[in-house]
Amino acid sequence: MRIYSENGAVGGLALGSKVGFSNTKKDMMVIKNKKALGFVWETMDPFLFCVHHEDAYPQGNKDLSPDASLDGRNIGQDFLLKDGWRMYHGHKVPGFPGHPHRGFETVTVVRKGMVDHTDSMGASGRYGDGDVQWMTAGKGIQHAEMFPMINQDKGNSMELFQIWLNLPKANKFVEPHFKMLWSEDIPNHKISNKEGEKIKIEVIAGDIESSKSPSPPPNSWANNPNNEVAIWNVEMDAHAVWGLPKASKGINRTIYFFKGDVLKLNKENLEVYHSAELVADEAVTIYAGEEKACFLILQGKPIGEPVVQHGPFVMNTRQEIQQAFLDYQKTEFGGWPWEDLDPVHGLGKGRFASHADGRKEMK
Fold first, then answer.
1. Which of 130, 188, 270, 306 keeps 20 to 30 A from 313, CA to CA?
2. Domain end: 277, 305, 333, which one?
3. pLDDT by residue (tens digit) across 209-218?
């Protein structure tokens, strides 16, 4: 996705703690840093950033556009949360029409709603409601990510994370590739406390006890288990308690708390819509507050190389960024084989992936 505007932070989430705890020296050693979350979430190496999209779209028309007036919106650059939703870069259907990437990976975690994918390799797909698309941009690709209004008789709720994971210099120019992690294949690691409270962890990358994630794309930094890359989407019942497994020393680990009232990390409060950078090799016990808590955990071994980013390109030097623009102007990273920059796949289409090599997945 292209993020050229950061206007319109997600609203409607109340900040504030219902339970007070005194901080200890040990807690302060475990939590390195806490930050309020905006529309774009700051991440640590090997991640580049994370965006949390949450839109309460209205019912749709037959062409999958919103059945609502677009008056008063900055069409093409609509990032203000008007009436509970945004058009982003879409003109008719919300989303992100064809745009290029080079040098990193996108991991798109769709909690609610659907995404229609098309790309310059000729691949396409529709995924959502718990599915994940993991795309390696490598040497260069164009893709479109549109949000079709599937429901014609009710609203179309959309919630997703898009996470940018860097590629090391050695893999900046690998062939583009995407892999579908269908919701049916993503492990849901479940824990029950003695009092009956439940914890569910979607293991998108990394392992938790016997729950092993699907394999990442072959050239991903996450494909080497020594890099300890983890993407865990966690839900905890009110009052539930979970002991976060330790990682190795030197691993970067951040928790992003996006729904609930308050979390307690050991004995330090974390307010909703805040993040906490953790010491990965220290024990952390997480306590949910009076409400169900939802949070994302990103962790991994740092790549430790220079990062130069300009818009949709992430390389190691300014010269490589300039070359990326020249290459895109010359080749368009394979061109665009679709009639429109913002294609959607029709009203009756289910979840599917059609890959550039001719392989098809139907759900």
1. 130
2. 305
3. 999 999 999 9
